[in-house]
Design brief:
The chain is α/β, with parallel strands linked by helices and about 475 residues long. It folds into three domains: about 140 residues, Resolvase, N-terminal catalytic domain (Rossmann fold), CATH 3.40.50; about 110 residues, Hect, E3 ligase catalytic domain fold, CATH 3.90.1750.20; about 160 residues, no CATH class. About 50% of the residues lie in helices and about 15% in strands. The strands form five sheets. The chain has a five-stranded mixed beta sheet, sandwiched between helices. Strands 11-10-15-16 form a four-stranded mixed beta sheet. Strands 12-13-14 form a three-stranded antiparallel beta sheet. A hairpin with a 2-residue loop joins β6 and β7.
Length: about 475
């Protein structure tokens, strides 16, 4: 026997439960309706809880599909949820010949072609297909993403669209790999320099820090796509390994977190991992540790593997006993001559300029997003006019515009997140630099009175990188 079911939904404030129940009791009594089942949805909001997460509605859908449902009684239409989601639910009820009664509005799905609701259902059915097999109505964009990760718009760098499917662009994917590898080894500044030196562009445009970090922060490159807080897997789109992605995130985090610099402690060698060699081709490459026998015994050296393999005609091996004292004296000289006041002034000037630039970009993005949201509202208003028979516009025009605007808003919000991360990065970097400057303002005294292992920690903390050229040494500290 088919059943008549009452749906009672109470939002989180729980204030109107009794009024709903009393109204429904009176309605079924006056209309001689026998109630076989009552479904209560406690503490859910029809405007915040998604249709697929509404257990009460899902139970009703299952009963309808199983031909167990005759009618549903609700207090009013909004107790079912947001209007557009109601349409998906009502489509299924119509297909299963289930009547839906509202205490305040009467029969919601009456056989009247002029009914605004039925016209809306017909439109919604044409755009969002109900899937009985899954017993849920999925958002069209999510379904598209679950199939292929492409939901419209311009494909991410490293990919292209073929037959409306996202596939890897082999040429661009090699650039993505290069960016990750270079960033992990050298950081963002040197990576941007290398991209410029090699004349590598992003679809005709010069690479910037923002563009680079949009690559480094995007899960799509490890074969994952985020949708409404959930990471969906797309192994066929993976360009880099999870390990490489995580290393890039760790490096970004270590640059933004005071006192969390990663130390290289495989040996007790002072400058392990900090020395780079300016090779004949102009590229900085990290020096490896090697050992040689001398009259004073076995000592370590810093060796450029690349220059050795290419038989470069420049110095490529550096004896530690000669090089390290020179480096230490240079670092002492730099620290002894630094003016904290001047450096702080420099930081404040630079961060103000950078912050203003990023803030303006965020403001432009916000305004653009608001314009697109207003465009969506206008399209929705036009759809309502079509429902009411007040407009002859093709329904697909506002429908497609809404989809397009939603995709563009998502892309703009991703750009916004990158800019907000940059703002945080600026503040944290400056804070870290001033912290180190204060910590090592008496560098010479601290260093000279430390044990060798402690000296290595100090250098790893203070030094970003040291580049050795044929006739000069470039020392880059983490304080400027």
């Amino acid at each position: 026997m088919k059943k008549n079911v009452v749906l009672l939904r109470v939002s989180t404030d729980m204030q109107d439960f009794n009024s709903q129940k009393n109204g429904i009791d009176k309605y079924v009594k006056e209309n001689n309706i026998t109630v076989h089942k009552i479904i209560e949805e406690q503490g859910v909001s029809g405007y915040k809880t998604k249709l697929e997460d509404r257990l009460g509605l899902q139970e009703l859908i299952q009963m309808a599909v199983n031909d167990e449902l005759n009618s549903i009684i609700v207090f009013n239409q909004d107790r079912l949820g947001r209007r557009l989601e109601i349409l998906s639910f009502m489509t299924i009820m119509n297909e299963q010949n289930v009547k839906v009664y509202s205490v305040t509005e009467g029969l919601l799905n009456e056989d009247n072609d002029t009914s605004e609701l039925i016209q809306a259902i017909k439109f919604w059915t044409a755009n969002y297909e109900s899937k009985k097999t899954s017993l849920r109505v999925k958002n069209g964009k999510r379904a598209t993403i679950e199939r292929n990760a492409y939901s419209g718009g311009v494909a991410n760098f490293g990919y292209k669209v073929v037959d409306r499917k996202l596939v890897i662009n082999e040429e661009e994917s090699e650039i993505v790999k290069f960016i990750y590898e270079s960033y992990i080894d050298y950081g963002h500044k040197r990576t941007l320099e290398l991209l410029e030196e090699k004349n590598i562009l992003k679809r005709g445009d010069k690479w910037t820090k923002t563009k680079m970090f949009s690559i480094l922060k995007n899960n799509i490159y490890r074969g994952k796509k985020q949708y409404q807080g959930e990471l969906l897997d797309f192994p066929e789109l993976q360009i880099i390994s999870d390990e490489m992605f995580n290393k890039a995130q760790e490096r970004a985090k270590s640059r933004n977190t005071r006192g969390t610099r990663r130390y290289t402690n495989r040996t007790d060698i002072l400058f392990e991992g900090l020395l780079f060699h300016k090779c004949e081709d102009g590229i900085d490459r990290k020096l490896n540790i090697d050992y040689v026998n001398t009259t004073a015994g076995r000592v370590h050296t810093y060796r450029c593997k690349y220059c050795k393999e290419t038989k470069a005609q420049i110095t490529k091996n550096f004896i530690s006993t000669k090089l390290e004292p020179i480096l230490i004296e240079n670092i002492k000289s730099i620290m002894n001559n630094i003016s904290i006041k001047e450096l702080e002034h420099k930081y404040n000037e630079e961060i103000t300029i950078s912050t203003d630039k990023i803030t303006k970009s965020i403001d432009i993005l916000n305004k653009t997003i608001e314009k697109k949201k207003k465009a969506i509202d206008s399209a929705m208003n036009e759809i309502e006019k079509i429902f009411m028979g007040e407009s002859n516009l093709d329904i697909n025009i506002p429908s497609n515009m809404i989809k397009k605007m939603e995709t563009e808003i998502e892309e703009l919000e991703n750009q916004m997140e990158v800019h907000q991360n940059e703002l945080e990065y600026l503040g944290d970097t400056t804070s870290n630099a001033m912290y180190l400057l204060d910590k090592y303002k008496d560098f010479e005294y601290i260093y000279d009175n430390s044990m060798n292992e402690e000296r290595k920690v100090i250098l790893q903390d203070l030094v970003n990188k040291i580049v050795i050229n044929q006739d000069e040494i470039n020392i880059q500290l983490n304080i400027y």
